[in-house]
Amino acid sequence: MKAALKFLALSAALSASAHAAGVTLTMDCGSGTGFQICKDGAEAWAKKTGNTVKMFESPNLTNDHLGVIQQQLAAKSSDIDVYMLDIIWPGLVGDQLVDLTNKVPAAEINAHFKGIVEANKLNGKLVAIPWFTDAGLLYYRTDLMKKYGYSAPPKTWAELATMAKKVQDGEQKANKSFTGFVFQGKNYEGLTCDALEWLVSFGGGTIVDSSGKITVNNASAAKALDTAASWVKTISPAGVTTYAEEDARGIFQSGNAMFMRNWPYAWSLGQSDDSKVKGMIGAAPLPSGGGPGAATLGGWNLGINTYSKNQAAALDLIRYLAGPAEQKRRAIEGSFQPTIMSLYKDQAVLKANPFFSSLYSVFTNAVARPSGPTKGKYNQVSQAFSTAVNDVLTGKSKGQAAVAQLATNLARIKGSGW
Ligand code: GLC
């Protein structure tokens, strides 16, 4: 009897620490299109556990978002307990995040794609748990494919350019704003993602390889960049060199583009009632330039601020948000791609996102940016790369000169090692 009472008291204490009611947490939920869906999830947890979650609205562009988090961490601020973290950040902020290795049960961690879990490790520490993943896709207008006599989306960039031009010329007769292809051409992290896809698809490598060697100075990489530059002002508007994800989506979703490169979140928004292209969208793998077509691996993860004063409750919150029920809800409501493998067999998830099964191999073969090998210097590497690419897109330089100069700049950033 005594033992049973002791056990009851112990388990009550344990669940009290896991769900300690009455705690107020602050969570970084990003901004823009994903904010409300994130907030709904956090509030569902708060209601279930008797806690409160305040939302911190962070900048929409990942570079600006990183700046805010770095500032907070540099000041050792405990203001934000839970951060949403880009897959490329563990090397940049991971040393100020709580090690989750022995805090999240192994079975729960092993339910996620192994590669994504590995990408969230820094020096053996698990600094975040996967929340959703991302891979670059080619969106296209199924109605216009039919109208212009095309039966399948383009397999190569050359085919894309031909198709985009034909549809653009035809549509512009009635709609001057219509354009062939929109993508992320602004000088920021999003351009690094798009341009990595171009490079890999031309056989031009990944800027820096997995051993840390700078590989970008090669003819295929140069050709990839020159090809992308040839789209500007022919099948893409001049303004594409200033577009981020949401600029491209705005144009595509208002019915003014044939093709768009974007992440999976654009699917559910494109199919919403206020979208002009609802029911007219297809999603395909990105085209090839001779090498294998490639999708950049993106995605977001949840970690706990090492200076947080509410780490037990924060742990409970991130386990809930990264768990199967919440990932399923987010996939159905917002096309946020699960990191939990079993959800790719869930009928409701697949019904809302048919491309999750047809493009499954695109997701599992997505190419990582070189954040692993370049560690704490990744941000500088990416900025040097996107600047070089943007210069080629705007005509300030040509592919070959740009990759040669970039290799020199990267060597300087690398110094004696990453
Ligand atoms: C998406 C990706 C992220 C990437 C960003 C670039 O949010 O998930 O990994 O860095 O786009 O804009």
TrEMBL record:
Keywords for this protein: Signal, Transport
CDD domains referenced in this protein's UniProt entry, alphabetically: PBP2_TMBP
Name of one Pfam family that matches: SBP_bac_1
Annotated signal sequence range: 1-20
InterPro entries in UniProt: Bact_solute-bd_prot1, SBP
Similarity remark: Belongs to the bacterial solute-binding protein 1 family.
Protein name stated in the entry: ABC transporter-binding protein
Record organism: Deinococcus metalli
